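Chapter summary example: a protein plus adenosine-5'-diphosphate.
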Amino acid sequence: MLDVSKLSVRFGELKALDRVSFAVDPDKILAITGPSGAGKTTIFQLLSGLISPDSGQISLGHEDMTFLESKHRNIAYMFESYALYPHLTVFENIASPLKSPLYQDKYQNIKIEEAVKNVLSLTEMSDFEERFPSELSGGQKQRVALCRLLIQKPKLFLLDEPISHLDAKLRHKMRGEIRRRQIKTGVPTIWCTPDALEALSVGDTVLVIDQGTVQQIGTPSEIFLNPVNTTVAKLVGDPPMNIVEGYFKRSGSSTAFFSGSKVLNLNSNQKNNLKEMNLELGKKYLLGLRPTELAVCSVGSKKKAFVGKAYTIETFGKYSIVTVTFDEEFVKIKVTVNLPIKIGQEVGITISATKLTLFDRDTGSVLKH
Ligand code: ADP
Ligand code: MG
């Protein structure tokens, strides 16, 4: 098992990682997701020994390896930049780790050939084994780097954005195939990606990082259904949750949510739901609305929560994403039926959520029910 405790590192003034802790069991995949520059690759550089932390500890199988030399760590690392050997063919690149002293006893040439052919076939690269890296496209180079990783039997696997340059069909296939293989190896795997949905689909556990700080660690469904703050909520989802700023005000006998000059009409379920949360009237909050929990209706409909103007309409066949402007806020709605909406048209919007998500406006933290 890999155990990482309170790792911190600075690059000059920049706190690249601040007390990052996590653990990965053998036969499990930890997916790390966060925007570009969040600190994902820095974690890998520390784990592989390319750089040393300012503080914190890394142990693998109860052995402290925080300052162990890189070559003694036995880690398979797929670099974001591939790092292929330009003078070696695809086949030789992939076979290269098996020819290191680490594997000398375990592999004869015949086994190496079998292993290389196996990963080439998995990644649909069998026709390219004699080519040199300069004769490959970006996505093909990435698959060679992936093959070179998959072929190893290390103590830890590190995959830095391993499928980012593949076409959608292959990316889809690889997510499942790599996950299946990695779990069988019985070796902990860490998979980094800025694509939060990819992280949810490949990880047993997902770690969300932003600006060098861990935001949340949880199962894919915990991360998706219960984001702990607006940073996680804005990253996860397809599209992610809408966050609308507003405040609660008495309106007649009940309470309503005001965003700017507009009021969101909440149904009685939603209002009851909010009652449990001890909200302060007049104080600003952030209300999270999932695109799947919103729907478009006619402007005159009694069911509508508010009225907005269609800003963009993206049609994906089975569903469409309608972006609506509403008092200077943009709200995305995922609709499954093809509605004859035109850009600029006024539309009514209903909120079907039974459990509303509210965040503190200053800290961004989710408020507990
Ligand atoms: P990610 O992989 O999540 O995109 P990185 O871990 O590569 O992010 O980078 C995290 C932050 O650290 C970024 O702001 C990046 O510019 C900075 N950084 C990374 N490596 C160095 C370095 N060697 N020197 C200075 N700053 C660095
Ligand atoms: Mg990176």
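Key point: Residues 285 and 361 are 5 Å apart (CA to CA).
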